[in-house]
Specification:
Two copies of one chain form a homodimer. By secondary structure, chain A is α/β, with parallel strands linked by helices. Chain A has a single domain, classed as Survival protein SurE-like phosphatase/nucleotidase (Stationary-phase Survival Protein Sure Homolog, Chain: A, 3-Layer(aba) Sandwich). Helix content of chain A is about 25%, strand content about 30%.
């Protein structure tokens, strides 16, 4: 195969350390273009920008890192890169390396995953990759995982409409136990709202909470990562609950 | 059943005509609380607000309409209503009536659906309801549909993790052909970016495009609505592609 064309994006913004790590990794295996948000866009879900125009600005940084910053969401970045910035369709879209895992219920809040979903929807094999730490700059394990999984996807492809959601444990490369192919588990963020009063006497609320994950099977994304495995989940956004179609039909026929 | 407690939200904002129509409809069958964004939040997907505090402001309007506006997304509204504003868990969350259908691929961009999804995730039977028009103020058909389907859900419940995504055709009530239980179809927004230059000589881009829907089966959401049926799709966010798990495992075992 000639050098594959790889589009890199993320949700932490173009100046985040994770996207530079991913750029370094992908530069070893292909021709890389970076198109990423100009600001942090965590927890934006699959938002797109329809009421405001988008700005696209070339970015150059030390070490040869270059790309385009976009005044929009991760999904916007994937869209505008593929539709307007790139001269030809990329062979792969890879989004990350996110600061913090994207696991269980939280997948649907994830900007990182949404950018890869957008790539998938535009017919391009796509990967989301996240590191299970909000503080680490230890990207060696995640970079090696990104290279291995990107090579795999470039060779075998993925089914239409499906992307790979990869989560890498927070540990030294030699502490990683291997790879587990996993399902979206039941991890969720048990949130609550803390009520405060501002200096002007007005009330405001902060969302806060903690992660709950009671999955005990290594077939689940959260448990695999906790046990120092790289978790790879094949995910898609076919949202119909097929198993309930029949019952619901019978209800409405009888009315 | 005693008067059910119904939480109403939306993504077009608390001052949109669709939420007032829904408030009128739901007031006929239960005790209603409205908690909705203070501004329009279309296409925000499942965004939540984690880096900014939220403000909650009581709103009163003519005709007895009252509720709380929130400086956040539809998912924020459902969360803060259930966790902080309401004294007890509601029996039903209903989001809408959205201006414009939420069908096919576009379901994942939908703030209307995300608010109902949040209700589902918090264990409450939930409905998203949208009208297939961006301009109409003809809500009679949609109001009647909202009442019928809400009564159904209050009586029968929905499976854990599943919500009903309802789309109402844009026509007079007497022109509605009935109800179809449908699947998420293949409708998508074929978008492109129009490049313009601002008065300062700088480039910007507008996202634009058109809806493509080639589904021909009345079992698909888009086709059902085009044929003047009320479409009800049971949807969930179990995103694992189970059918690809085995093949993916075999790849990584062989490496």
């Amino acid at each position: 195969m000639k050098n594959p064309k790889i589009l890199i994006t993320n949700d932490d913004g173009i100046f985040a350390p994770g996207i530079r790590a991913l750029w370094e990794a992908m530069s070893e295996i292909g021709d890389v273009t970076v198109v990423a948000p100009n600001t942090e866009q965590s927890a934006v879900g699959h938002a797109i920008t329809i009421s405001d125009p988008l700005r696209v600005v070339p970015v150059k940084r030390s070490g040869g890192f270059e790309g385009f910053s976009v005044s929009g969401t991760p999904a916007d970045c994937a869209k505008i890169a593929i539709k307007s910035i790139l001269m030809q369709k990329p062979d792969l879209v890879i989004s990350g390396i996110n600061s913090g895992a994207n696991i269980g219920t939280n997948i649907i809040y994830s900007g990182t995953v949404s950018a890869a979903t957008e790539g998938t929807m535009l017919g391009i094999p796509s990967i989301a990759i996240s590191l299970d730490s909000y503080e680490s700059d230890e990207y060696r394990g995640a970079k090696q995982a990104a290279i291995n999984i990107a090579k795999h996807v470039l060779r075998f492809g993925v089914p239409k409409g499906t992307l790979l959601n990869v989560n890498v444990p927070y540990c030294l490369p030699q502490e990683i136990n291997g790879v587990k192919i996993t399902r979206q588990g039941h991890q969720y963020f048990k949130d609550e709202f803390e009520k405060r009063t501002d200096p002007h006497g007005r009330t405001y609320y902060w969302m806060k909470g903690k992660i709950i994950d009671e999955d005990e099977s290594l077939e689940m994304d959260g448990k695999a990562v906790r046990e120092n495995y790289i978790s790879i989940s094949p995910i898609h956004f076919s949202v119909t609950n097929e198993s309930y179609m029949g019952e619901l039909k019978s209800h409405f026929l009888n009315e």
